[in-house]
Amino acid sequence: MIEVINAHLQEYGQRPDVLVCAPGRFHLIGEHSWFCKDKTLSMAVDLPVYIGISLRNDSAVRFHFVQLDERKRANLSSLKFRKEDRWANPIKAMIYGFTSGGFSVGGMNVTVWTDILPSAGFGITTAIKTASAYGMRELFSVPCSDAQLLQVIERGNKLFLGVGNYTADIFSAMYAEPDSCVLTDHSRNSYELLPFAFEDTVVLLTDARVPRISVWDETTLHEPGNVLLLGELKERRHNVHGGWQYEDSPTEINEVLAVVNEDMRRRLRCIMLEHQYVLDAADGLRHGDFARFCKAVSRSHDAMRDLYLLSCPEIDWLVKRVQNFDMTSVRNPNGCSRITGKGFGRCTYTILKTADVEPYKQKLVEYERIFGFHPSCYSVKPARGVHLVRE
C-alpha cells in the first residue's frame, strides 16, 4: 500500500484521496457460454490492482501506470476513446459511465499499480475498471447504489469501449470473498458464493506465454439462431440447481442440431456439456468433494480441446503433466488443470495437493526446454472483492 501512495505522491505532489483494491480473477468453467444465459464458475484471486485517485481543481484527468512507467491524459469536456491510450481507456470508460448516467465527477489524478499486466489475462482490466468506478463513487460522493454502479460499468463497456459486458467478470471483482468461488447465473443476473475449502491444496496460475492465434471466430457461435437451438434443448428440472439442465438424449440432440454444420454442432454440444460440468464442479465445492470437482474440471478441459478447439499443444502438455501425477488414484486425485480465459493459448489454472507443487514447477522447466516459451507461475488464493484501502 505504501508503494502506491508514494508513487502517487511523487507523480502528482499529493497523496491519493482514495485508495481502492480490486482482485484479479480467473474462470474455472463456463466462461464461453454466457451468451446463451448459462452459468460461469469463477475465482477472484490475490493478484491485486490498486487505484489511487486524488482531486484536481480543473477538468483535466491524468493517468499514471507505475509498472509500465507510462502516462496518459484526457479532459472531461472532450473524453474520447483513443487506441494509443490502451490501459487508460477502461478508466475513461468508467468516467463516461458516470456522466452518461447523469452523475457528476470532476478532474482527477489517477495512479494504477499492479504487478500483473493486463496482457496476462487474469482479469486485470476488469479489476482496473471496477476499482476506478468504486474509487470515483467514493471520491465524488456519487449517490449511486451497487446496482447503479453495475450500470455505470455496463455503460462504460458497451457505449465507450464497444465491448461486451461480462457479468461473471464483474461479479467476481465486486462480490468475491476469501476462501470462496463465485457462481454466476447469467439467466437470472445473479451470483452465489461457494466455499473453496479443499485442505492441503494450492492454486497455481500459469501464463504459458503462448501467443494467441485464433483458429476460428468464437462470435459466430453467438448468433441468435444458435441461442434458439440451445434454448430448445433446455429442460426444466426441479431437482437440479438453477431449475434446468440440457437434454441428454442423443436422438433429441441430433434432431435439434441437424440444421447446423458439423463444426457448429460440435461447438454447441460443447456448450451443453460445459453447463453440466459447471453444475458438477459447484456441487463438488458445496460438499467438499475434491474428486468430483477435479473430474468436472478435467472433463471441461477435454471438451474445450476436442470439441471447442480452444487449446493448443503447449497448453495440453501442461495439463497432461498434472493428470499424470497420480494415475492410480481416481477416487482421490492429486489435482486438476484446465485452460482458462480467451483460449487459443496463454493461460492455465492448476489445483494441486501441496506435495505436488514443486514437481509441477519442475515440469515448467521441462516445458521451457521443449517449447521455447518462458512461463510465469503464480501461487494464488481466493480473495476479497473490490474495497477501499484504509491507512
UniProtKB/TrEMBL annotation:
This protein's UniProt keywords: ATP-binding, Nucleotide-binding, Transferase
Gene3D superfamilies given in the database record: 3.30.230.10, GHMP kinase, C-terminal domain
Pfam families named among the record's database cross-references: GalKase_gal_bdg
GO biological process, alphabetically ordered: galactose metabolic process
SUPFAM superfamilies for the chain: GHMP Kinase, C-terminal domain (SSF55060), Ribosomal protein S5 domain 2-like (SSF54211)
Membrane-crossing residue ranges in chain numbering: none
Broad enzyme group: transferase
EC annotation from Swiss-Prot or TrEMBL: 2.7.1.6
GO terms assigned for molecular function: ATP binding; galactokinase activity
GO cellular component annotations of the record: cytosol
Domain Galactokinase N-terminal: 7-54
Protein name in the entry: Galactokinase
Species name: Treponema brennaborense (strain DSM 12168 / CIP 105900 / DD5/3)
